[in-house]
Amino acid sequence: MRHRAVTAVLAAAALLLTAGCSSDDGGSPDTSGSASPSDTAARSSSPGPTAQETPPAKGSVKVVRTVATGLSTPWGLAPLPGGDLLVSSRDEATITRVDAKTGEKTELGEVPGVSPSGEGGLLGIALSPEYASDHMIYAYFTSASDNRVVRLIHDEEKPVGERLGAPDTVFRGIPKGVVHNGGRIAFGPDRMLYVGTGESGDTGLSQDKESLGGKILRLTPEGEPAPGNPFPDSPVYSYGHRNVQGLAWDGRQRLFASEFGQNTWDELNAIKPGDNYGWPEAEGRSGEGGFHDPIDQWSTDEASPSGIAHAEGSIWMAGLRGERLWRIPLKGTEASADPQAFLKGEFGRLRTVVPAGDDRLWLVTSNTDGRGDPQDGDDRILELRVS
After folding, report:
1. Confidence check: pLDDT of 132 > 50
2. Torsion angle, CA of 349/362/125/30, rounded to 10 degrees?
3. Listed residue (239, 243, 237) closest to 267, CA to CA
4. Is the Cβ–Cβ distance between 284 and 318 less than 8 Å?
5. Per-residue confidence at 54, pLDDT binned at 50, 70, 90?
6. CA-to-CA distance for 151 and 157, rounded, in angstroms?
7. Which residue has the higher pLDDT, 2 or 24?
């Protein structure tokens, strides 16, 4: 277990006094202390009916091993076809290959044009659906002027440190800020590119369907609005979001997204094309017509969620400020039982969780991001077995 000093407790108390908090984990963007998770969940859940195909109400998590240590500000994770892992560094703007068996790290290179600041930098990464033939890595990053998506060729024949080709900009113009830069990208079952964005601290952008901020975007691999999007000639897939950093699909190709709240409720949402998820008029469940209420909600000190993954009939949600991994069992697009928290405080801040096949997950910590309490070995990638 990670032991917190008294000063960390005082820092956490100071965070609670910060009105209108705007960071990616509910705290002041300038603090380096990690907020202490509370012992009692202050959230509202909506357990649904059970069915034979519904996962058990109670699950389990076992840490199988530590895959790699010594990572600096890791953010995105992309498993390669052969089993190794690619991880992005937010502040160093590098992509590193990790041998999934030995943990050996090989830097592929630095992504040019990245302007790290606050919560911005090199964020999510994803492999092209045609990676076996085109060797393309997609990356979301903060530049000097905006947030954008680029693609780079991964050339394994080149010398170490030079294996990334020049970036080809696929999509640009996403609003940037010191906070709320979104950053998660993922190719869906339809082979389209989904992009989670933040409102960059300008809450009015979320309800503006002409803005790219506070949205989930759906693009072709070339960066055009994807066919079948809900708004004509628009990349916008859903709107009314505050800061989306988690995207995952279940076995029936239904999309789920995690979202940072401000002072009250973090959210897990089932995404329906064209729907309005309420921010800034609604935070958490509102019951108001016109807004899509979340599947479940958490107080910001218990979650502040970033990445999510679907495995074993549940959504698994990594918590930054909450320093825990949440399991949300599903029946369809509803929670079938109360969420469970695992690994509470054991590894500090949790940033990214990715399926690793069958009942396994990759989990990335985030203690070197300026808000954590780094310990020896941080940051790290863990392999989990879940049920």
Report:
1. yes
2. 0
3. 243
4. no
5. confident
6. 18
7. 24
Structure confidence at residue 173 (pLDDT): 98
Query: For a pLDDT cut of 70, what percent of the chain falls above it?
Result: 86
Can you read off the two tokens belonging to residue 341?
């928290």
CB 178 within 8 A of CB 119: yes
**Which pLDDT tens digit goes with each residue over 169-192?**
999 999 999 999 999 999 999 999
Mean pLDDT of 229-240: 98
The residue-averaged pLDDT of 276-294 equals: 96
All domains in the chain, ordered by first residue: 34-386 (2.120.10.30)
Q: Are 185 and 150 in contact (CB under 8 A)?
A: no
In angstroms, the CA 339 to CA 361 distance is 18
CA dihedral 183, 368, 365, 65 (to 10 degrees): 140
Instruction: Order the strands of the 61-68 sheet from edge to edge.
Output: 61-68, 381-386, 360-365, 350-355
pLDDT at residue 263 greater than cutoff 80:
yes
Residues 82, 371: Cα–Cα separation, whole Å: 34
Whether omega for the bond prior to residue 159 falls within 30 degrees of 0, making it cis, is no
The tokens of 294 are what?
């979340």
The amino acid at residue 357 is G
